[in-house]
Amino acid sequence: MLQAEAVIDLDAIRANTAYLAGRAAEHSAATMAVVKADGYGHGAVPSARAALAGGATWLGVCTVTEALELRTAGIKAPVLTWLNAPGTDVTPAIAQRVDVGIPSVRLLDEAVAAAKAADRTARLHLKVDTGLGRSGATPDDWPDLLTAAAKAAAEGTVEIVGVWSHFAYADAPGHPTIAAQIATFHEALDVAERHGIRPQVRHLANSAGTLSLPQAYFDLVRPGVSVYGLSPIPDWPAAEALRPAMTLRGRVLIAKRVPAGQGVSYGHTYHTTAPATLAVIPLGYADGIPRHASNGGPVLLGGKRRTIAGRVCMDQFVLDVGDDPVSDGDEAILFGPGDQGEPTADDWADVVGTINYEIVTRVGARVPRTYVGA
Questions:
Q1: What angle, rounded to 10 degrees, do the helices at 142-154 and 105-118 form?
Q2: Which of 21, 99, 251, 362 is the most exposed place for a label (fewest CB within 10 A)?
Q3: How far is Cα of residue 101 from the mean position of the Cα atoms in its chain?
């Protein structure tokens, strides 16, 4: 293995997608695999190909740049980009038959101008804010967006492919906002119908919705983190079939004996209590290891779980392995699927007070990705 690497199991991504797509297909819904943020840190293009092999028929990203990366790689599946600030040139995306998410009249006007510049009909998905309070037209603004969109569609400048929204609380099954958002989405679809807009796809369900809310599947589901084997809902039975796809590991840079009372790493926030071996692992916060994991991050080394000793540095951290036999070059596993007793991304999230999404997506670009599986 390399000095440090993130090993990505493409078979796991494919199998996870197949499981999620199978759930959706039972209710006649298609699946959009979300590969934004470089495939949640797993690599956008390899992850996209594995997800398509698993049964996804759509791909979702945030930015035009992310969408064009997929097109440049030769991926021809429908792609939706949905987070482009005013002034962003979406002309290249429209020229490459990338669908564009539209949350406001201003961005609709810019998409219309881009479609004319590209000399191609823009494929648009109109977004309504059903209660998340983030992007999307509010129910009060929704009729204005529909009126403008219907006018552009009548002129042949755009095609309204989708209407969509996003959940605020789908990771808490039974929360009252879930039913309220579904009801608001239905109302928004009724208003669209009255404006003569009948979208090809209606979509609302994210990973949590795909795992727990078949009533929210509509025509298309948009699983993200679950494609990579992580669940947004702790201990949810439907997530037990998922397999984490990323294993983060590094080699011991140096293992050395130190006396009792030795201070470790910056600020000496940790001291050895007896003569011990210290093992230095060449991964740090520049690689995405949370500095909040100082004196807490779990790591498997030498067949045992250890805890980071002292502060996480920019490029390295230290483990106190006591008298256990650990040598230069030994493998340390920070997280993975748990097959060897190693910590998981969920374990790391618990230690630093975050979510598993952040643990995998923050793994830095200088950590090589090694791909295994088909």
A1: 20
A2: 362
A3: 18
Locate the domains of the chain by residue range. 10-234, 246-372
Locate all alpha helices (DSSP H) within 129-234, ordered by sequence: 142-154, 176-194, 207-212
The per-residue pLDDT for range 187-233, each reduced to its tens digit, is: 999 999 999 999 999 999 999 999 999 999 999 999 999 999 999 99
Which residue of the set 40, 116, 127, 266 is catalytic? Answer: 266
User: What is the spatial distance between Cα 78 and Cα 36, in angstroms, rounded to a whole number?
Assistant: 14
pTM to 2 decimals? 0.96
Q: What is the DSSP letter of 322?
A: T
Given the residues 36, 40, 127, 270, the one annotated as active site: 36
Interatomic CA distance for residues 181 and 129, integer angstroms:
9
Nearest-angstrom CA–CA distance, 303 and 50: 31
The verdict on domain 246-372 having CATH code 2.40.37.10 is: yes
Closest listed residue to residue 333, CA positions, set 305, 365, 366: 305
Q: Which fold has domain 10-234?
A: TIM Barrel (3.20.20)
Q: Which of 54, 57, 16 is nearest to 221 (CA)?
A: 57
Specify the pLDDT at position 102: 98
3-state SS assignment for residue 272: coil
**Dihedral over alpha carbons 207, 16, 100, 37 (to 10 degrees):** 80
Indicate if 266 belongs to the active site. yes
Catalytic, 76? Answer no
CB within 8 Å of 333: residues ≥ 6 apart = 247, 248, 249, 299, 300, 301, 340, 342, 343
Q: Which residue in 358, 87, 104, 110 sits closest to 228, CA to CA?
A: 358
What percent of the chain shows pLDDT beyond 70? 100
